[in-house]
Amino acid sequence: MKDAVVLNQEETNSLITISNPPVNALSHEVRKGLMKAINDSLEDPGIETLAIIGSGKFFSAGADIQEFGKPSQGPQLPEICNLIESSRKPVFALINGTALGGGLELALSAHFRIAVPSAKIGLPEIHLGLLPGSGGTQRLPRIIGAEKALEMMLNGNPVSAQVGLSYGVIDWVDETGDLTVSARGIIQEVLEEKQSFTATRERTEGLQDEGGNRNAIEDQRIVWGKKAKGLYSPFQIIDCVKNALSLPFQEGLQFERESFNRCLESPQRKGLIHAFFAERRCKKIHEIRDAQPRKLETLAVLGGGTMGGGITVAALDAGLNVVMIERDEASLDKGRTNVEKVYDRHISKGRMSSDEKQKILSRYHPTTDFEKVSSADMVIEAVFEEMEVKKDVFRKLDQCVRPGTVLASNTSYLDIDQIASTTSRPQDVLGLHFFSPANIMKLLEIVVPSRLSDDALATGFALANRMGKVPVRAGNSDGFIGNRILGAYAKVAGYMMEDGTSPYRIDEAVRDFGYPIGPFQMFDLAGGDIGWANRKRNAESRDPQERYVHVADRICERGWFGQKTGRGFYLYEENSRNGFEDPEVLAIIDEERSKKEIRIRDYDPEEIIRRYLGAMVNEGAKVLGEKVARCPSDIDAVQLYGYGFPRFRGGPMKYADMYGIDRILQDIQEFSEEDPFFWKPSELLQDLVSKGQTFDDLNLQ
Ligand code: T1G
Ligand code: NAD
Asked: Atom 39 in ligand 2: which residue has the minimum CA distance?
């Protein structure tokens, strides 16, 4: 095994290189190596200066996230930072690329920081439910003041080397293109001029503006009081920075350590780190490990409606050429408007110039000529959700497209095998299920019918990658992963409403759990007519044992389809997305309850969540048991990126593990006494409970 840290002596300078691909995470091996290299250099009388650099494109992406939650092994990063800072020999951080989290904290404890222009520096710990725990909350404010330090720690996004220079975090940006050579010059200068150097803990520039610092702390407390929504670490970060301003350094460090440990133990940290790995795990698909994606430069999109428009924008933004095909000129005009209005909004917000818009639109080719599909490497169909219409389109595609063209359907529910079987090339046909608005939502379900070839599947994943989407592999089952699970918790929301709980209280409980909106707000946003049409289509095949709530139908019968008609479960003022409670809707619900002689039950928020999540997890476990999803964290990724599940809870399957899957099963069994048909427990869930396992045990590595 190669050494994770390499020490090279260059005259009187000790060059210490972190070499832990791919991102130089500060794993146990790296910390051990750093400690030794630094100590050796400090003890060596021939060494006058130390420089720390990363190999490859990263300085270091920070602590090794894999190690959190496991027993920790020394030396710890704070010790290394303290050792560097207290060195009598000057230490230089040569920031050759991205420096994040503990990587930047390491650099902050050095006496000088030199960065390449392309370097990015940041403290993203907040995204993992943590805080900078190696002195970052204490050192950074001493250099740049509370306002900028809080900005970096609370938005968590990296800044460029130039911005770092303007803040005073970076001392030099090396423009020569050879960092180590120019560092040699700078090191020499420092030595020759016997330039004094100050340990970061002694620096005070950032502490001067006491009033400004106090205001920054109070401002952020107010901001986060409103937007924290269940997050824990932002307040800990604010407290740490406050203490950096008032406490002696050692005490501040001690406070930071205690706060860090509390964050480490928090469920939010567990949820957020699970989400980090879920997002990456879903991209590792064993079937396509050796498959080459096919060429993809031109995409044809069939249909310019809500989805066709959004998919077109996503593809244009990813640099592809897009041919949009509509059935007539009037519909094509609407399609064109759907695309242009996205860019016009960017222009009105000052995010894009008209020239940039025109440049992008030069790759956009709207037409009513179906034959133009022949120019495409891939086709995505987003026409009406009717099997006969889809089959007809795929038959025509089969006649017109070149051999090897990948053919995708954006259907929400329909059987992709059936669609594929209308063509002579089922190996090229797959499902690409985008979410609305398709240019914004990150989830892309990649639906794999039985005869799909690996390289066509790889092309689907390559498209997702180019578009910056989170792709999740799904089996070809009704509603795939996401809509199938949605079906279950949407039903339970309806049952609770009919049982006696106001839809507005249900939405509130779901929001308090951390969702941006509740289920009834979501129905109003998506448009009630879509679900209504689906229910009518499925009416015949519905099992008579299934409990059916008619309230949504009664609302749709009045033409109340949600936001777009100004009325649904909520009442909307003209051009407003803010809905108000509607007494007439409550009257409709009451009427349905009395028709069925329902014994009214007003569930409290805790019970609402028990039922809502119980339904979600039970259906998730069924989806897993049927192998429609590969592993639990893929379900979590679907819910996080497509359905607004609160990220700090990690996803429904992670939530179940943390809540206790035995408790989830008990809840389901309790509810099944009133409705055994709906609340039939998943076999896989029962099996896991009986073996004492968790969903996490089923996650792929
Ligand atoms: N630890 C372990 N593995 C990491 C890692 C890390 N910090 N960062 C990335 N990886 C893995 C990742 O799982 C993937 O693995 C591979 O590297 C490439 O990543 C003490 C508390 C660095 C911008 O939050 O933001 O320091 O999937 O696919 O798009 O105060 O990864 O290939 O097996 O994402 O080029 C703070 C998190 C830690 C950085 C690179 N640091 N990482 O993006 O590639 S907490 C972070 C990222 C901390 C101190 C504390 C991104 C990236 P695999 P990738 P990328
Ligand atoms: P939409 O009604 O907004 O748009 C459909 C478009 O297809 C219309 O503009 C229509 O003129 C066009 N069209 C119909 N037949 C055509 C043909 N033969 N050739 C070319 N164009 C044709 O519908 P939508 O909401 O964009 O949904 C499209 C598909 O995407 C459906 O399968 C739907 O289930 C799926 N979907 C929708 C959503 C959503 O939230 N709306 C989300 C995911 C998937």
From this structure: 436
